[in-house]
Structures are given as C-alpha cells and as structure tokens.
Amino acid sequence: MARKKNDAFGVIIIIAIVILVLIALATPVVILASYLYHSIKAIHIEKRHSGAKFYFWLDEQEKRDFKERSSQLSQVVNIIQQANSEGEKARISRNLDGSFSARSKLGKKLKTTLSEYEPMESYLTAYLHELEMLPILRWEEFNYHIRNAKASKWSLCCWAGTLAYYSFSIGRQSVSE
Known about the structure:
Blueprint: H1 8-48, H2 60-89, H3 105-176
C-alpha cells in the first residue's frame, strides 16, 4: 500500500513564497508613497512660512496677542496679590481649602474677588503657555516631515541598492556557470 503524500506542507511553502514576493514588490511602493507624502507636507509648511526671516516664530498678530495677554495676566496677578495681602493684614481667617472665610464683610469681598480672578489667571497662564509652545510645535511638525522624507529616501535607495546587488550577483553566477 502506497503512503499518501502530505500536500499541505507544499501548499504552505508556496503560499509563504507568494506572500514574500508580494511584500518585496509592495515595499518600494509604500516607501515611495511615504517619501512623496512627507516631502509634500514639508514643502507646504515651508511655503506657508516663506518670506519670513524666521519660519516658526510667532507672527505679528500672535505677538500682539501675547503682549496683551501678558499685561492682562500681570494685572490679574496684582489684583490677586493685593486681595491676599489685604486679607492677611486684616487677619481674616482661612478655610481648610485655603480660601478666606466669608464670615466678615471683607472676607466675603475678598472671596468674591479671588473667585473671579483666579480662574482668569489660570486661563491666561495656559493661553500664554500655548503661545510660548507654538514655535516649538511648528518646528517639530516641520522636522517630523523632513526627517521622515529623508528616512524614506534612504530606505528607497537601500532597497534599490539591495535589488541591484542581488541582480548583479545572480547575473554573475549564471555567466560563470
């Protein structure tokens, strides 16, 4: 009785070879698409900021906004400091959460003042921090696209070099035989 050959192993090998060939053929397409995408994004960012001496710094409107908000923040901080020093001078007791006690008329006034200006202070501080980070974020976005475009270009060159090397080595082997 003849043994039945197991064809499943052969099918798995053929499928693996087909998958490897498809990956090898798709690799340069993916690398080229990545290179084009990141290059176009970098060019777009550079054009958007062209003509400026410094591409990534704040523009005039953002600078004006920064100055206005900085002055507003200093005024708010002064008001909060004055309210705190006024409460300390008057020896108004504080609650467990650190706010002034509202048992006295001055305590109610100070508590109202602080509850009005402290959220404004935190908003202005956060807004100014965002404006401070804007040039860094712009630079990081541009750098990300440039870095990935160069990496894709090097990947494509390495892939082409590997393909050329193996093509020539196979050609030399067939000529020598």
